[in-house]
């Protein structure tokens, strides 16, 4: 009788263990099944480690950017388009982690829990339409290609749809160079600089300091400052200016990008207020695109007790602060949009081969970054920049609000990083933009003309 009881208990324990293992297997299958399937050694959708069994990727106008033809991944007929959209579409080996072929590989193959990749193995995959305009991306790439590296981003600040996302250096994915690993020309070629690059912001950071001043110094518009070509905070390194501005007010100081004035303002504000504003504007957080593609997180190195000269350098964008270009894009887009940042999107729709649109949703929201009143004030200042400093004639018909930046990078090979950020104050063309050029000249001379070319191409299509 005792033997039967022991056997019964052992059998019950065995059944419980079996059911537990089965439950764990089912849970793992549901939560990780797509990861198991999307391995380079799965010959149903990969060949020699490269993705082949995936659906068609098109731009917003229906131009094919990538598709599978006779078991091989084929790309757009234009070599320029293949290069300009490389970091958006991605490669077939998964080296470009932010490319849609990597991020949405299970959706493109048509994988689901019940059917697995049965459909993909039989050529029945899902197609994806993106929000980017390949023609505009081509213009951006042509404008960037002669520089060592850089990026261009343009977004509709009302809807969050990204219409241009270009990063250089790039390469022709259909005719991949054999020497990329050894050629300095392709250094960092797999990085989408718009999303994952981190850069010293230069004078574009004066937008942050200006917003902090508007919100914390009540009489900032009534004040005048003195620029003698530099500002000596009393200890440490004097902060050099780009010119001798003499007596200057707050609005003109931003337009002329007066380092002396903004260093004084930053020191008066102090580390705590500047750090809070940088965080409030999203420069120390990442940016999600379509809920799945994540940018790098910016870094703001300033805290109570830092020397005045360091605070001053930080306030003009020449400290140790690092920001991602897309975070700067989100900031200026929020200024344009009454202080609210919208969720960014790269995917218009998914559809199966029969043309049926499939469910695709991500959390869409508006996030207030600054008050409507502050947004209105800084928008007016950015518009004044273009009218008084950069010249509307250089940006004909765009009604541009913008700020340039020239970040001086002291390294083994000292160079400038040229920035130009802003937006069109235009209800019919609500576009915000960021242009960054490594080893450029000044922001207004290098990045500004690129922004003009891209925006003119977009609004005059």
Quickly describe the structure:
The protein is an alpha+beta fold.
Overview of the structural elements:
By secondary structure, the protein is of the alpha+beta class. The chain contains 16 helices and 21 strands. The strands form seven sheets. It has a six-stranded mixed sheet. Strands 8-7-21-20-19 form a five-stranded antiparallel sheet, sandwiched between helices. A two-stranded antiparallel sheet has the order 1-2. Helix 7 runs antiparallel to helix 16 (443-459), helix 9 crosses helix 12 and helix 11 packs across helix 13 (308-315). Residues 28-50 and 112-122 have low confidence and may be disordered.
Which key features would you list for this structure?
single chain; 461 residues; alpha+beta; 6-stranded mixed β-sheet; 5-stranded antiparallel β-sheet; 16 helices; 36% helix; globular
């Amino acid at each position: 009788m005792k033997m039967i009881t022991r056997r019964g208990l052992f059998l019950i324990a065995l059944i419980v263990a079996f059911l537990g293992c089965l439950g764990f297997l089912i849970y793992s299958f549901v939560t990780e099944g797509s990861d198991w399937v999307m391995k380079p050694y799965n010959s149903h959708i990969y060949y020699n480690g490269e993705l082949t069994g995936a659906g068609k990727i098109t731009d917003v106008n229906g131009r094919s950017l990538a598709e599978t033809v006779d078991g091989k991944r084929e790309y757009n007929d234009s070599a320029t388009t293949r290069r300009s959209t490389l970091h958006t579409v991605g490669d077939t080996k998964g080296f470009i982690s932010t490319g849609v072929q990597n991020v949405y590989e299970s959706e493109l193959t048509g994988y689901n829990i019940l059917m697995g990749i049965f459909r993909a193995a039989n050529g029945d995959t899902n197609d994806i339409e993106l929000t980017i305009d390949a023609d505009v991306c081509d213009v951006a790439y042509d404008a960037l290609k002669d520089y060592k590296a850089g990026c261009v981003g343009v977004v509709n600040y009302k809807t969050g749809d990204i219409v241009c996302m270009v990063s250089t250096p790039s390469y022709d994915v259909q005719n991949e160079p054999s020497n990329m690993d050894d050629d300095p020309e392709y250094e960092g070629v797999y990085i989408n600089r718009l999303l994952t690059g981190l850069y010293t912001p230069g004078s574009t950071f004066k937008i942050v300091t200006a917003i902090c001043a508007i919100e914390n110094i009540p009489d900032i518009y009534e004040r005048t400052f003195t620029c003698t070509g530099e500002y000596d905070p009393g200890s440490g390194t004097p902060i050099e200016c780009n010119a001798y501005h003499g007596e200057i007010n707050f609005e003109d100081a931003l337009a002329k990008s007066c380092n002396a004035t903004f260093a004084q303002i930053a020191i008066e504000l102090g580390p705590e207020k500047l750090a809070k504003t940088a965080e409030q504007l999203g420069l120390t957080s990442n940016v999600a695109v379509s809920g799945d593609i994540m940018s790098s997180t910016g870094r703001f190195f300033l805290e109570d007790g830092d020397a005045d000269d360091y605070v001053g350098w930080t306030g003009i964008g020449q400290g140790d602060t690092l920001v991602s270009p897309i975070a700067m894009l989100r900031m200026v887009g929020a200024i344009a949009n009454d202080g609210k940042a919208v969720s960014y999107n790269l995917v218009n729709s998914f559809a199966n081969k029969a043309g049926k649109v499939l469910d695709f949703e991500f959390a869409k929201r508006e996030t207030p970054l600054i008050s409507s009143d502050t947004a209105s004030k800084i928008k007016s200042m950015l518009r004044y920049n273009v009218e008084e400093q950069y010249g509307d004639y250089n940006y004909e018909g765009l009604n541009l609000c913008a700020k340039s930046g020239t970040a001086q990078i002291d390294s083994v090979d000292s160079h400038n990083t040229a920035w130009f950020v802003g937006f069109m104050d235009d209800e019919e063309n609500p576009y915000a933009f960021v242009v960054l050029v490594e080893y450029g000249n000044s922001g207004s001379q290098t990045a500004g003309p690129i922004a003009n070319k891209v925006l003119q191409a977009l609004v005059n299509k």
